[in-house]
Request: fold
Amino acid sequence: MRKYFFLMLIVLMFSTQVVADVKSQSSKSGFKELEPSMELIKQLRKGGYVLYMRHSLTDTSKPDQVPLDLNDCSKQRPLSEVGEKLAEAIGVSIRRAGIPVGEVLASPMCRAKGTAKLAFGEGKYQLDEMLMYTSHLTKKQKEPRVKRTTELVSTPVTDGRNKVLVAHAPNMYDLMGYFPKYEGTVVVFRPVEGGSYEYLGSIKPQDWLWLLN
Reply:
């Protein structure tokens, strides 16, 4: 109960934050963001889905420095203090919802791997360099990353759990023209036979409040 109260407090704090990446907050014409439902949570409890999680809230006063050094978090845009607590709270929410989590892959950027660590635990995730932030890349440089992300959301998950990818909003935009504007949003995919996928909905951080009731 204490952790649930903690979650509510974090979400209230989250609602006052300025959304990052202002220039990229729109999605391509024709894309429709789907709201989550209790039925979606019931499906996730059975396993077999892919959850693409945008990293948690960041401190936008500290931008990434160029050239980027993946081994130096002091030169990257970090999670804010609220973002760290929100990442932990989202992990608590996923567990409280009874959603089984198997493989967790994260972008090597500090804000993504930090989110994975806080949400799912130290040693519970692996880094995947192909999930790294794509916003600064050329179209040609993006191609192998988009291909890898497509493979990850399209490959069947057969161990009775769900796969989690912790990465960035621009990557999702490159994949299907959708920019999840809220940091900490969980985008749900169902792998489809034949190497495709179906987008089922987006769970924003504040949605966990009513989804857990």
In short: Helices lie at 2-14, 38-45, 81-96, 110-120, 139-154, 169-176, 208-211. The first strand starts at residue 50 and ends at 54. The mean pLDDT is 89. The two ends are 12 Å apart (CA to CA).
